[in-house]
Amino acid sequence: YWDGDVLERTLPDYLHGKTQMLLLLFFGALRKSLSIFPCSEVRMKLRESLYLIPDVAVFHGAEPARIPDAPPLIVIEILSPDDKLSQVRDKLEAFRQWGVPHVWLVDPHGRHLYNYETGLAEVRMLRVPELGVEVSAKEAFE
Prior knowledge:
A hairpin with a 4-residue loop joins strand 6 and strand 7 (112-116). The chain has helices spanning 14-29, 31-34, 85-98, 137-141, and strands at residues 36-40, 44-47, 50-52, 56-60, 74-78, 102-107, 112-116, 120-123, 125-128, 133-136. It has 142 residues and is an alpha+beta fold. The protein is globular, with a radius of gyration of 14 Å. It starts with 13 loop residues before the first helix and ends with a helix. It is built from four helices and ten strands. A six-stranded mixed sheet has the order 1-4-5-6-7-8, sandwiched between helices. The protein has a two-stranded antiparallel sheet with strand order 2-3.
């Protein structure tokens, strides 16, 4: 739901689902030791007229509300073959402007990892310095 418009979501394929599961398992294994709360496909209220659903989100410190209205520590979008890059970038930028410190894009088809700050930058490792966590292609794609 983006400023009054309901946006159609692209349909994920097997690689998307597998990557999402691997990332959730990775962060799920760290849940208790790091006081993090990983979740998948949770509707989040960025502002009154903007609700977005990231593929994976990781909250830190306290468990989020049923419909989170405060930014998580990490948001991960996973590319699907039907995704339009302009729409994906708009979504990543919305999360960044909302205050998400770590906004990532993962491409399971090309096996690429991207960090989003002022734009997309391909990286070899996704890092969360405040947790001492690094996610490599091996963890994301197996």
